[in-house]
Amino acid sequence: MSSTTSLRVPGPGPRTRLLTPIAEDQKPKSPTFYEHHDVVSGPGSADLARAHLMMLFSQALFAGNYVCFKAFSRHSEDIFGKTSATIFSLMRGIVSLVLLPIIFYTSPDRHYEGVLRMKKANIKPVLIQGLAGAARQNIVPYGLMFTGAASAGVVQPFVPVCTCMLAVAFGLEKGNKIKYLSMLIGCIGVFIAAKGYDFGGVDLGFLILLGVCRLLPTEIVVVENGILSRLVYVVDRVDVITGCSFAVCILKAHNEAHGGNNKHYERRCSNMYIPTSYLISRLGFPGWGAVLYSVFFIILISWRIQLAAVKQLGPIAVGLYQVTQPVFCFIFAYFLLGEPIFPHQVVGGVLVCIGLGIFVYGQYLTALKKEREAEQARASENERVPDESPQPRGEEDDAMEAGRASENVRPRRKHSRSVGLHFASSASRKCTYTPTNSLLKSQMTILRDCKTVKSAEFRRAADHITRLLIEEAVDLGWIRCQEEIPVTTPTDETVDGVRLPEDGLMAVSIVRAGESMEGPVQEIFPEARIGKILIQRDEETATPHLYYIKLPSCKSSPHVLLLDPMLATGGSCMMAIKSLLDSTDCDIKEEDIIFLNLISCPEGIENLTAAYPKVRIVSGCLDRCLNERSYILPGLGDFGDRYFGTQ
């Protein structure tokens, strides 16, 4: 009797278990992270726990900042505003650079093990967020020296500029004209704001920085059902708003207690990373109490949102939601400090609020669309699954049922099922698997069996599975059909039917293995146009290289089927998608691409959905993992050689 091991697949929402026989020499040497800790299974959730340890090191530097604050403030108020924040941010950046590669270590067998290991793919996003925060920590005090507390948020829009620069420099996101223009506008705005140029009482730097808000969309971090919840987001926003207001109140009272002659109290607000810690210290708690408070709230709420979002939305989108902070800053300054509100601040606040309103309304429409799609999917499942409502039973029926139960007969599965690997931050990030039934298992068994040496037998099984993949894409509505077409039967009756799209569909195969899937596609869609992409993977480094691409000329295509039977690391598929999006022969959008493959693995799914969240995936089977040579396990060997008989 073969033993089985329960593997949990990273993905948001409920945990998913895949029971797969594993040989003794292939089992992990130590329990996985998810068996050590009761965490919500999500993309990078194990990495979040490791990142929290990094934040503990980072927040330990807060104590050093507090000591610098006490030391410098005794001698000179002027030196505090510049030196303390600079020292803190430089220390934070250095420690981040040194500790991140050490703490976020990737184990050779690619399993989440231990407490101090993290996937390499998540190092860059976390590092970018840390460096962008350090840059902001340096810039904010200088901005306050020239603009005052009312414009305390004047340099907050520079955060997306920092993240944009770093993301493009690290190769984490692709640069384009909009991003480069945003960088330029942001840099000019910060320079002018620091110099204090104005025009008729209007801060030119702040107005220019608002251009960043208009060029790049404002994003609010709301993860629906993954690592975070809406409640955590609301608590974080309340903590930030009340923290700022409490700190400003205390600083105002402190200033008034000294006769109103303290001209530098605004700078203290900028240097308290979590302003409410200043309030706690003023209420009688020692300095370490303020530090512990800051560590607790940053680890529990703020950094969890930042790190979860940066891996689901990208570093640029995460930095953008901070453009709302200038609105709160000048409102608090008006009510608590009595500083005047200028026209440019009102205009900026209105623009930001309009942008937020559009974003929230867009999220509402997306939620409605997702709900309608779910209802349609449920209706489709109900139509395909026979009615299993209880019928009147007799003694013979009971005896037959008992006999079936004793034989351990499995109940009938519904047609479509999702294993929950789609990412919760976007409703369009979908990965669906064809139903596990005896027919699919029989064909997959032929492909996997090393005794299948006849190419004809292998080809018949592969073609059959490809047809099932296309059927799944049609059933999900990803390939839109022409519905309610009246036809007349030979008995002179009229019925409403459905026709598959006769034109407008393109299939692109990744040579050579992908060509094996062209036949079933053309059988179902005779008018489909075929494109070719030649990408070869280096056997040593697993790095893909593009050699050839030829696509049909067309203005647009509502459906593009990308064909490749195996999804391992996802490198070849991602390069093919990039080539499709960059092609000048045809205007292809990311959401138009449907990737069909027979066998996939968790690593490839995660890499592909992270790079191209709008691409939809239909896979025949999800295998366990990759080995050290980036081969799928258990897999089926070299698909191309076995299909074309060249092994």
UniProtKB/TrEMBL annotation:
Q: Which membrane topology term applies here?
A: Multi-pass membrane protein
Q: Where is the composition biased (Basic and acidic residues)?
A: 376-387
Q: Where in the cell is it found?
A: Cell membrane
The catalytic activity of this protein is classed by the Enzyme Commission as 2.4.2.9
Q: Annotated region Disordered: where?
A: 376-421
- Phosphoribosyltransferase domain residues are 436-646
Q: Which ranges carry the EamA domain? A: 51-192, 285-359
Name the enzyme group at the top EC level: transferase
One protein family per Pfam:
UPRTase
Q: Name one GO biological process term.
A: pyrimidine-containing compound salvage
Cofactor(s) the record lists: Mg(2+)
- Give the UniProt entry's GO cellular component terms: plasma membrane
Which InterPro entries is this protein grouped with?
A: Diverse_Substrate_Transporter, EamA_dom, EmrE-like, PRTase-like, PRTase_dom
Provide this UniProt record's keywords sorted from A to Z.
Allosteric enzyme, Cell membrane, Glycosyltransferase, GTP-binding, Membrane, Nucleotide-binding, Transferase, Transmembrane, Transmembrane helix
Family named by the database record:
Belongs to the UPRTase family.
**What is the protein named?**
uracil phosphoribosyltransferase
